[in-house]
Amino acid sequence: MSGVTVDRRNNVTVTGRADGPVVMLAHGFGCDQNMWRLIVPGLARDFRVVLFDHVGAGHSDLSAWEPDRYATLDGYADDVLRICAELELPPVVFVGHSVSAMIGVLAAIRDPARFAKLILVGPSPRYVDDAGYLGGFSQADIDELLDSLESNYLGWSAAMAPVIMGNPERPELAGELENSFCRTDPAIARVFARTTFLSDNRSDLAKVTVPTLILQCARDAIAPVEVGEFVHAQIPGSSLVTLPATGHCPQLSAPDATLAAIASFAADSS
Amino acid sequence: MSEAGVDPALLEDSVEDLYENAPCGYLSTRLDGQIVKINATLLTWLGYRRDELVGRRYFSDLLTVGGKLYHETHFAPLLAMQGEIGGVALELKAADGARLPVLVNSAVRTNADGEPRLIRTTIVEARDRRAYERELLRARREAELEGERLKLLVTTLQRSLLPPALPAVPGLQAAAHYHFASLNEVGGDFYDLFALGAGRWGVFLGDVCGKGAEAAAVTSMIRYTLRAAAVYDPDPGAVLSTLNAALHEEYERDSGRFCTAVFGLLSRDGDSFILTLASGGHPAPLLIQAGAASYYPVRGGPFIGVFDDAVFTATTIVLAPGDTLLLYTDGLIDARTDEARERFGEEALAAFAAGLGDGGATLVVNAIIDLLDGFGDGLDDDVAVLALSAPPGRASRKARPAELDRRS
Hints:
B: disordered C terminus
């Protein structure tokens, strides 16, 4: 992917048609901007594509990570607005995957003028079930996930990667892990998981004023169909498209359909 | 044994048996995760019949909720991007609800055109390994906790050996800094500035040989001995002699610890301060005066605590307005500078201090803090500095000493 890194903190990459409308792609919990690699070439034909890593993920500046700042999604929303401002971007079509969908919602409420449109991929305003609301997870489920991350038993090799990377005397290990994407510092991942899975942004949805598309997968263990419908009902005038895809990452499992849906909503001038 | 010498049972010519009864689980799924093939080993581990899973369930259905989330957010995306993923620790949920810790490797199988067709997964039982990993993590957490506890103990103890803040001495600017070489060990440097009443103040700074808990105990004893002796004895030399006697007793008994120190009595004289100072084996103080800095020739006594009968003689120093006196421990001049790894030394310190002009005690101490930062890992000892200055520019008020006296 060609592009220029203009911002070290968020490892911002800009690619695509220089005079095209701006599409900004925001990755979710667990990965980095690599998440979008299958659809970036398609988008780059017509759009100026801005990619970045959330602070703490991918090749962002890990020293910029502060536990307090990133203990709420507002810290991440603030980063999105700072990238828009620093790059002097015209109003962007913001595509937020997973937790970044809500980050985009918060940013668009705070400064609607920066956003032309919102595309929310697999959004969930709250993961934990509540009275009259189905989030897909019980509090016990989420506690189990957070405990798992605490005790670090998930993704042993992923968790160990930074440690192994810090072993210059064993270069063979580094080489082995070099081609793995989406490396995360386990300590940062723990906080990000807590921020993500304990958030409740249901009351923010009605405040969104920019045109919004909700893209959801037909079979998604993290954001079930009911959640997508809830988001659709809450955001005034929003559209909902259900992709014939399984899993939480349609940009990887169904890249063509995802690209087509994003491109057509982003280009639509009505 | 057959005639050919090979037991037919050892030929391993049944591929199906190799697959079904391998000592690991085999699982094949469609790209969306739906199970299309599974071996007998894995079915036994999970307690399912083949027809309960094949064509009906998805790989993520076999995972715990935490594992499902991990699968969706990490495992599946990485597999899609890399075509393979290995060594991932997950827990499988058996039919009876039991949890099976496993290590999972997956690879995407492509057709002749390179199109991804299905995902092959091998699953290795990892109960023992997981228990071992947990033990490692527990041990690490414990070690971290111990480290925190030690740091807290050290900083608390260290704090008890230093004044929390310097007292305000009317007309005097005083500043101090303590650089801790290690957060895990109490340092052996010390200083203090305290009121003695009747317009007199006691001041000391020194260095106990060694560090750690034993040195801290000696430091504590030194501090209280000096403070107590100063109340009854107006001669700094005699105060150091008292300390020598107390320390020598310990030294003889078992501690083998001695110290170097300067002790002074401070009193005000108009806009100036008079300091009578005695030294026991301690580096000479640095007097910064009119843009120049020189070591003040204080008459030096022996190391404190080593000899039975030690005599210390006081020297009188006048701090005129604009003058700054710097007391320090040898960690400052023994620091190795970045380039040559040579000792920073007395000469360099004097030149450095001379460059500071008559900025006063606070400025001098702040500049030294920056200087110490610049030494980086060339600084491996504790450093204590204490600066005293009579602020300049008060000459115009000399005409009204009565008013000044009233204020103080």
